[in-house]
Amino acid sequence: MDENPLLRLLRIVCERLEAAGTTYAITGSVASSLHGQAVSSLDVDLCVRMSADDAARFAASLPPELYRSDAGLLVAARSHTMSNVIDPASGLKVDLSFLSPSPFHESVLRRRRLVAFASGGPSFWTVSAEDIILMKLLWRKDTRSRKQWDNALSVVKVNGARLDWSYLRAWAERLGLTADLELMMKEAEL
Fold first, then answer.
1. Residues with Cβ within 8 Å of residue 166, at least 6 apart in sequence
2. What is the pLDDT of residues 10-20, one digit of tens each?
3. Which residues are paired to 44 by β-bridges?
4. Residues 90, 137: one domain?
């Protein structure tokens, strides 16, 4: 049976990230789908901690059929912005968000978990349920995006009492998200 094209791309990228010594975690819609209600996506978002030297090694290790801007990866690593790797054959992509050094980002990467994708399928490092909630609320802070809210809310509804609420409240306070987290708890009827 052929490998799912998105899983294949993700496997290639994650194997190369690990070989380059990079710490990564899946985030975005894929992570919120794993921890909450499934939503479809044509891309995978990864948060990465990577130096410019690691970015150069990573870019050089990618198969030639995958599109990436080597210079773009280096700039993103230095400036803590985003770049991507695209499979032109399928149109699928992996977005890489180069994390700035911050206590929250360090916590996110420290708490990541190895998650199996499908029975007998590959495993990938994925942000925790608590961290995807906080990340979605952070992304929503500027845009007021309903999609970000709904994704985070689904994680809260599915996990409820299993969530580490003291961790969520502490980081919500530090990140200026307390009002949003309280509203989300109310909407989730917790």
1. none
2. 999 999 999 98
3. 94
4. no
